[in-house]
Every structure is written in C-alpha cells, then in structure tokens.
C-alpha cells in the first residue's frame, strides 16, 4: 500500500510543474504584438451594402463608368494582449510575426492617442488618394478647403471640399493669392468668400474673422491647400482599415470608375502603397503578409511600391506576378501594358 501512495505522490509532484507551466501559458501576457495576413477588400466592390469607393453626383447624373473584376487593397492583421500560449501558437504557425509591443504602441502614448493618430493618417490618405486621382484625370486646381475648425469663424458657412474662388470680390487662383489677401485683414473684419460646393450651386459667405496669438491678421478658421477640384463627392467607406497603405488602390479605383474600360482587364489585381496628393507611391510595412493574403484571396498580380521590392521578393510568390510601381501614372501605364500582353516593370 505504501508503494502505491509513493507512486501517487511522485505523479502529483511531477504534475505540479506541468500544471504550473499550463497556467503560465494561459495567464501570463507577453509584451509582443502578432502581425500576419489580414483581410483584403475589393476597392471596386461593396462592403456592408456601400460602395468601397462611392462617387456621388448631383441629381443622380452619373459620370461613373461600369467596372468589373478586382483591384484589391490588402491589410496586415494585428493581435494584441497575447498570452504566452497564444504567442507561441501564432509563432509556430509560420504565418505570424511577433514584434515588440513598443514598436506598435509607443510607451509614451496611450492606445487612444495611437488610434487617433492612425485615424488622422487614414483621413489624410483618403484626401491624397482623391487628389492624386483627380490630378491624373486633369481636373483643374483650386484653393480647396481641407478642414473647418468647429467652433471657428467659418463653421456652418464653409465645408470640407469647398473651392474658394474669390475674397471680397477679388479672384484667387492659388493659395499664395488667397493668403496675400488674407494678410491685409485684421481680426473682426467681415470678408466675403466666393465658393463652389460639390453637388450644390456656387455661393457666397460673409465671415467675421477671428484672431490668433501667432499672427496679427484675421483668421478664417479653415485649412486650405492647392488641389485638383471636381464638382462631385468621393467617399471611401472602409473606416480606418488598411491605414495610409490603402492610398494607391483607392486612387486606382477612382481612376477606373471615371474612365472607360477596365484597368484590371479581367485579372485579379491586388496591391498596396501610400500615395501623395501629386501621385507618388510610397513604401509600407508588412509587405510579405500582404502578398500572402493576396495570393490566398486569388490574386495573380500584386502591385509593389518600388522601395518594398527587395523585401517582396523574399515572400513565397507561387506564380503571383510582382509589378513594381512608383507613381499613379506609371501604375496605370503598367496595368495598360499588362492588358496589352506586354511586360510591366517587375520587382
């Protein structure tokens, strides 16, 4: 009987570290974030019943041409708050990359602050995608309202997207001319702004200028820039999915919808890349994860920012054609070359 008790005791003693290790795996959090292939979205399609890229015209008159096929943006999945067990499982899968959490969430910023910065970056990316596409399509430049301070002198009078054509009866063709006139004013002055509004008649607004401690002239309370202007709205309905790296694919979708024919020529094209308002394509993070996601979604062509080409070549490609892109114009040309059966620039 004593021998049996000793065996049970030995077994219990052996189980203690195993149970303790199991608790560690399931309870202890690790300071790492997992990155891996994320979902892809067809910028020519719909999400939750809305067009991913929605071009709205006044009175329903359509300037949008039919599109088909795929121009997919790609994303990187991100998992935070991992336990030791989850981190080991994801790492052993071979599909996930573990990175120190501080690289994703800097210790000097809260998660809310990081999320707010990401949302701002995404909004700027949407604006740049619109400006790049409209510039490619040769829409004329205008002094364009990018933001309106609320509260502020222009709140309720000017809107995001308005084109400012004149101040106090004087035409303004660009930002320099606009600022030159504004610098002749003082706080409290009333000025009259002539503006064009998307999907609405042109109008005028009388605005009482505010003040600011860093200048002695009147403050309009808007952010403005020189940008190509079109009389219709372009909405991007993906919230903050994909971050700034969605810019190139958003621009391509706008160009495809506002021109005849299909940019993809029936091919399943995916890609990534930031974009500036003048159409320069920039590098992104997580290119290998995005290539894997695109391949698994069915893509046969992947658009790679030039600065990501070296890293992209290290990813398993399995027949996926990697096309090197540097600007929006060059990307559209590369897609036309593909459609004609030619060889576009490769990584």
UniProtKB/TrEMBL annotation:
<dbReference type="InterPro" id="IPR036034">
    <property type="entry name" value="PDZ_sf"/>
</dbReference>
<dbReference type="Pfam" id="PF05362">
    <property type="entry name" value="Lon_C"/>
</dbReference>
<dbReference type="Pfam" id="PF13180">
    <property type="entry name" value="PDZ_2"/>
</dbReference>
<feature type="domain" description="Lon proteolytic">
    <location>
        <begin position="240"/>
        <end position="338"/>
    </location>
</feature>
<keyword id="KW-0720">Serine protease</keyword>
<keyword id="KW-0378">Hydrolase</keyword>
<comment type="similarity">
    <text>Belongs to the peptidase S16 family.</text>
</comment>
<feature type="active site">
    <location>
        <position position="290"/>
    </location>
</feature>
<keyword id="KW-0645">Protease</keyword>
<dbReference type="InterPro" id="IPR027065">
    <property type="entry name" value="Lon_Prtase"/>
</dbReference>
<feature type="active site">
    <location>
        <position position="245"/>
    </location>
</feature>
<dbReference type="InterPro" id="IPR014721">
    <property type="entry name" value="Ribsml_uS5_D2-typ_fold_subgr"/>
</dbReference>
<feature type="domain" description="PDZ">
    <location>
        <begin position="143"/>
        <end position="199"/>
    </location>
</feature>
<dbReference type="InterPro" id="IPR020568">
    <property type="entry name" value="Ribosomal_Su5_D2-typ_SF"/>
</dbReference>
<protein>
    <recommendedName>
        <fullName>endopeptidase La</fullName>
        <ecNumber>3.4.21.53</ecNumber>
    </recommendedName>
</protein>
<dbReference type="InterPro" id="IPR001478">
    <property type="entry name" value="PDZ"/>
</dbReference>
<dbReference type="InterPro" id="IPR008269">
    <property type="entry name" value="Lon_proteolytic"/>
</dbReference>
